[in-house]
Write a structure and sequence with these properties.
heterodimer; A: 337 residues; mainly alpha; ABC transporter involved in vitamin B12 uptake, BtuC; 78% helix; globular; B: 276 residues; alpha/beta; Rossmann fold; 6-stranded mixed beta sheet; 4-stranded antiparallel beta sheet; 9 helices
C-alpha cells in the first residue's frame, strides 16, 4: 500500500467505525428490560420529566452505562495497541503492565481497610493503583544498561501482576465481605457508576488518546528493532516513556470506571491491524471507535441474552473475544513480531 | 537533500575509543579514521569488537571513553535526526513486524528527513523509488517482508537504509545466512552504491577472501583494537592473519582478481585466539 491508499483505507475504517459506534450507542440507550423508543430517548434528553419512569431509566442508567462503555472501550483499545507496539508482543494487552492487578489490589484495600462499598468510590483507588503498578513496572523494567526493553517490561509486568494478585487472593480468601463487594467490580461491569465518574476520567482519557496518537508514529520505528530505530535518528527512550504515560492514563481510567476488563485491549488492536495494516497510527486510531463498539455492543448483548437478568459486559467480551482472536490468528501465517 | 551535492564526503573518526559493558571492556583506546568515499571492510575474530565498534560509530551505544567524531564534531553533540541524515546503519539482526510490505519498510527509512508532522513529500517518494530501483526490489514492493527469501529480504533492508540517503553507511554482517551468490549480489550492490553515489561504506564481513576482493581498505581488529588498516594486498599477510585469527595460512594472489586469497594450513588453528 502506498501512503496515500493506506490513509484512504484508514479513513474509511475510521468512518465506518464511528458510524457503528453511533448505532451501538443508540441501541444501548434503547435496549433493556424496559425497551424504550428513540422518540422517548430524544424527549428525555431535550425536556426531562423526573416523574416519567422511562426518562429516569434513560438518564440515570442507560446513558451513564453507554458513556462509560464508550470511554472504557475506546481507552482500552488504544492502550492495547500502544502496549503491543511498545513490547513488540502480539499477545500484549494493557493488563501485562500490572495495571489491572494494581487497580484490583487498590480497590480491595479500599474495601477492607476503609470499608468502602460503592463502586463510584472505587474509581479513585483503581486509578491510583493502576498508575502506581505501571510506574513500578516501568521503573524496575528500565533498570540496567539497555533501558526498558520489551522483554524486561513484559517479565517485570508479569512478576508484579503475580505478586499483587496473590496478595489480593490472600485478602479475598480471608474476608468474605470484601469478596462479595469485589467480585462484581472485578468482572468488568458498566453499571453502578454514575456520569460524574465518567466526566472525571473523560479528560484524562482524552489526554491519553492525544498522546497515544502522537506517539504511535514512533512505535512504527520501534517495530523495526531498537537499533534500527536509533539508526534512523529516533529517540527510543522518549517514545517508550511517552507510550507508557499514554497507557497508564488510558488504562488507569478505563479500569477505574469499568473494572479490570480483559480482552478488549488484546482483540481490538488485532481487528484494527487486519483492517488497516501495520501502521500503529492507524491501528490506534481505528481502535478508538472499534473498542467502544465492542464494549457497548457486549453490554447490549448481555442485556438481551439473559433477559430479564443481565450478564456483565466483561463476560460477554471474553466470550466473543476468544473465538474472534483465534480466527484472526488462524487466518494469518505464523506471527513473528 | 542538499548534502548529496556537498563537495566533500564527511569524515568519521574514533579517538581513544572505549566501549563495552561494566564488567567487560570490548574496545580499549581504539583509534580509527574511516577513509571517506571508500569501501572499508572490518574483519576480525568473533568477540574482537567489530559489532561493538560499528554500534559505537553509529551512536547506538554510548562510548565509555573517547569520542566518535563526524567532521570533527562529537556525534553525541549532533541532534539525532541530523546525524541520521548523514550516517546510516543496518544492524545485524533487523526485525520486521508481521505483514509489513517492502514498500512500507523502505518508506520508514525516510524518517530522519521528514518534518515535525511527518508529511509525505514528493522528495520522499522519489527517494523510496530510487532505493527500490537501486536494490532491484521494485518488483517486490508490495510483497510482505516475511514472504521473501533471505537474499531478497537483505536487499529490502538495504533499500531502507538507502532511502535514508546517508553519506556514510555502516552494515553489520549483511551477508550472514546468505548463500554465496546472494553474498556476492549484496556486496556488488554496496560497491555500486559507493561508486555511483560516493557513499562511504563500512561493512563487517566474516569471509576473508570476499573481504579482500571487495574492500578498498581492510580494517583488521583483534581484542578490541585495530591492528592493521590499509589495502588488502598490504594488510592481509600471514602474520596479521595469525595475530587476528590464530590461524596459520598461506596467502596467494586470487587467480581472477589478484587480491589476496587466504588458504588455511590444515591443522593450523591455534586454540581460541580471541579469548586468551
Amino acid at each position: 500500500m502506498s501512503p496515500g491508499t493506506r490513509a484512504a483505507r484508514g479513513i474509511v475504517v475510521l468512518g465506518a467505525g464511528l458510524l457503528t459506534l453511533t448505532v451501538a450507542a443508540l441501541l444501548s440507550v434503547m435496549v433493556g428490560t424496559r425497551p424504550i423508543d428513540p422518540g422517548i430517548v430524544l424527549d428525555a434528553l431535550l425536556h426531562a420529566d423526573p416523574q416519567n419512569p422511562d426518562h429516569l431509566v434513560v438518564l440515570t442508567q442507560r446513558i451513564p452505562r453507554t458513556v462509560i462503555g464508550v470511554l472504557a472501550g475506546t481507552a482500552l483499545a488504544a492502550a492495547g495497541g500502544m502496549m503491543q507496539g511498545l513490547t513488540r508482543n502480539p499477545l500484549a494487552d494493557p493488563g501485562l503492565l500490572g495495571v489491572n492487578a494494581g487497580a484490583s489490589f487498590a480497590v480491595l484495600t479500599a474495601i477492607t481497610v476503609l470499608g468502602l462499598t460503592q463502586p463510584s468510590a472505587f474509581v479513585w483507588f483503581a486509578f491510583l493503583g493502576a498508575a502506581l503498578a505501571a510506574v513500578a513496572v516501568y521503573a524496575i523494567g528500565s533498570a540496567g544498561r539497555d533501558g526498558a526493553t520489551p522483554a524486561k517490561l513484559a517479565l517485570t509486568g508479569a512478576a508484579v501482576t503475580a505478586g499483587l494478585t496473590s496478595l489480593s487472593m490472600l485478602v479475598l480468601t480471608t474476608n468474605t465481605t470484601a469478596l462479595n463487594t469485589y467480585r462484581f467490580w472485578s468482572v468488568g461491569s458498566l453499571t453502578g457508576r454514575g456520569l460524574s465518574e465518567a466526566w472525571f476520567v473523560a479528560p484524562v482519557i482524552g489526554a491519553g488518546l492525544v498522546l497515544a496518537l502522537i506517539t504511535a508514529a514512533g512505535l512504527n520505528l520501534l517495530a523495526l528493532g531498537d537499533d534500527t530505530a536509533r539508526g534512523l535518528g529516533h529517540s527510543v527512550r522518549r517514545t517508550r516513556t511517552l507510550a507508557m504515560i499514554a497507557i497508564v492514563l488510558l488504562c488507569g481510567s478505563a479500569t477505574a470506571i469499568a473494572g479490570p476488563l480483559v480482552f478488549v485491549g488484546l482483540v481490538v488492536p488485532h481487528v484494527a491491524r487486519a483492517l488497516v495494516g501495520t501502521d500503529y497510527r492507524w491501528i490506534v486510531a481505528a481502535g478508538i471507535p472499534l473498542g467502544g463498539v465492542l464494549l457497548v455492543g457486549a453490554d447490549v448483548l448481555g442485556r438481551v441474552v439473559a433477559a430479564p437478568a443481565e450478564l456483565e459486559a466483561g463476560l460477554i467480551v471474553a466470550f466473543l473475544g476468544a473465538p474472534a482472536l483465534m480466527s484472526l490468528v488462524l487466518r494469518r501465517r505464523p506471527v513473528s513480531l | 537533500m542538499t548534502h548529496r551535492s556537498a563537495p566533500t564526503t564527511p569524515s568519521l573518526r574514533a579517538r581513544t575509543l572505549g566501549a563495552g559493558y561494566p564488567d567487560r571492556t570490548v574496545l580499549d583506546g581504539l583509534e580509527l579514521t574511516v577513509s571517506p568515499g571508500r569501501v572499508s571492510v572490518l574483519i576480525g575474530a568473533n568477540a574482537s569488537g567489530k559489532s561493538t565498534l560499528l554500534s559505537t560509530l553509529a551512536r547506538l551505544i554510548p562510548p565509555l571513553a573517547g569520542t566518535v567524531e563526524l567532521d570533527g564534531t562529537d556525534i553525541h553533540a549532533i541532534p539525532r535526526r541530523t546525524l541520521a541524515r548523514t550516517l546510516g546503519i543496518l544492524p545485524q539482526h533487523p526485525v520486521a513486524p508481521d505483514g509489513l510490505t517492502v514498500a512500507e519498510l523502505v518508506a520508514r527509512g525516510r524518517y530522519p528527513h521528514r518534518g515535525l508532522f511527518g508529511r509525505w513529500t514528493a522528495a520522499d517518494t522519489a527517494a523510496v523509488d530510487e532505493a527500490l530501483a537501486a536494490t532491484g526490489t521494485a518488483p517486490l514492493a508490495e510483497r510482505r517482508i516475511g514472504a521473501l527469501s533471505g537474499g531478497q529480504r537483505q536487499r529490502a533492508w538495504i533499500a531502507m537504509v538507502l532511502a535514508q540517503d546517508p553519506r556514510i553507511l555502516l552494515l553489520d554482517e549483511p551477508t550472514t545466512f546468505l548463500d554465496l551468490s546472494h553474498q556476492l549480489e549484496v556486496l556488488d550492490l554496496l560497491v555500486r552504491l559507493n561508486r555511483e553515489r560516493g557513499t562511504t561504506v563500512v561493512v563487517v564481513l566474516h569471509d576473508l577472501n570476499l573481504a579482500a576482493r571487495y574492500a578498498d581498505e581492510l580494517v583488521v581488529m583483534s581484542r578490541g583494537a585495530v591492528i592493521a588498516q590499509g589495502r588488502p594486498a598490504d594488510v592481509l599477510t600471514p602474520s596479521v592473519v595469525s595475530e587476528a585469527f590464530g590461524l596459520e595460512a598461506l596467502i596467494i594472489p586470487d587467480p581472477l582478481t589478484t587480491t589476496p586469497l587466504v588458504v588455511p594450513v590444515p591443522g593450523g588453528v591455534r586454540a581460541s585466539a580471541d579469548e586468551t
